Amino acid sequence: MTIEQNVWGATPEGEAIIIYTLKNALGSVVQLTNIGAAIVSVKYADRDGNIDDVVLGYRDPMSYFGDGAASGKSVGRVANRIAGGKMTVEGVEYRLEINNGPNHLHGGTKGYANRLWESRVETNRVVFSLVSEDGDQGYPHELTVEAIYDFDDENNLEITYLAKSDGTTPVNLTNHVYWNLAGEASGSVLDHELKLNAKFVLEANEVQIPTGRLLPMKGSAQDFTDWNRLGKDIGSIFNHIDLFRGHDHFFVVDGWQKNILGEVGELRCEKTGRLVKVLSSQPGCMVYTGNWLSGGCPITKSGSRYEDYAGVAIECQVHPDAVNQPDFPSILLHEGELYCNKIVFQLRTY
């Protein structure tokens, strides 16, 4: 496996935007950038040997700053939604930016996804690092974060998120890459099929905050207990799928054990024979079918604009609003503890 490092551009302040190109023995290529510690490109062969780019992204590096889709990027300090932008940590109430309807989303508009990270190559991996100061976007205490990317000759792309804090603070990091296994410029992914290692989906209210109830997936419009097409029940009223214009829901991984890498699910495309198997140490995943991509994305890598459903994100993380819901797994990181979670994307064909 080889890694090339190049200057991709510069910010208005003159800071270098770096692009890293990782190429393995199979001819597969992964590209990363220090904007949001993001995945820019993933290219690998389909069942007939044709190589395509299978993740969404943009032509101009500056387009990665402030894109509503958070395409390919590492999001935090807390991924997903916090109800009303309010949380209480060790008896102190904190107010966070309201940037998604009535809620706080993905750490705020100046969260980790829209920051320039420090970056370096360490032998056969790329390491991104960030210092998030006390009070950053309203969050308490200083947090140091690393996002480590490994890519091997078996087409396994592994992300390791590490973090340490000087006091108790919520942390919930994930990657927001969008997959289109027919090629990033091929159109809708609603013909893709998904299978999840899950029996329950979180019930959501009208503004996408979990009620705390677990809904059985089997037989529902979100039955991904076996292979099911993403677009099959896209207009169902079940769990507000119609209101959200598609799937934008959290699925609870079956048999999850803390700090243990487990199977999350698989995404496949019959047209190309590509399949991505997802593993993670996190207790669940948010499945988002790109319901609001139209009009909100900059010029794409292929020179056009993405329409709704152009990609699907499978975001491994802890439950939404976990900081306010004690029955969910805790996202509180205490002084002296090490936050460590992994996500693995195994790129395959069938």
Write the layout of secondary structure elements.
Elements: E1 2-10, E2 16-23, E3 29-33, E4 38-45, E5 51-53, E6 74-75, E7 81-82, E8 86-89, E9 92-95, E10 104-105, E11 118-122, E12 125-132, E13 143-151, E14 156-165, E15 169-170, E16 174-175, E17 178-179, E18 193-196, E19 198-204, E20 210-216, E21 228-229, E22 248-253, E23 262-269, E24 274-280, E25 284-288, E26 312-317, E27 332-333, E28 339-349
Antiparallel strand pairs: 1-2, 2-3, 3-4, 4-5, 6-16, 7-10, 8-9, 11-12, 12-13, 13-14, 14-28, 15-27, 17-26, 18-21, 18-23, 19-20, 19-22, 22-25, 23-24, 24-28, 25-26
Q: Bin the strand percentage.
A: 35-45%
Largest sheet: 9 strands, antiparallel
Question: From N to C, what is the helix and strand string?
Answer: EEEEEEEEEEEEEEEEEEEEEEEEEEEE
> What would the principal axes of the Cα set say about the shape?
globular
Instruction: Say what oligomer this is.
Output: single chain
Read across the widest sheet, the strand sequence of neighbours is 11-12-13-14-28-24-23-18-21
Q: How much helicity do the residues have? A: under 10%
From the N-terminal CA to the C-terminal CA, the straight-line distance is: 24 Å
* Structural Rg: 19 Å
Counted by DSSP, the helix tally is 0
The average pLDDT value, as a whole number, equals 97
Structural class: mainly beta
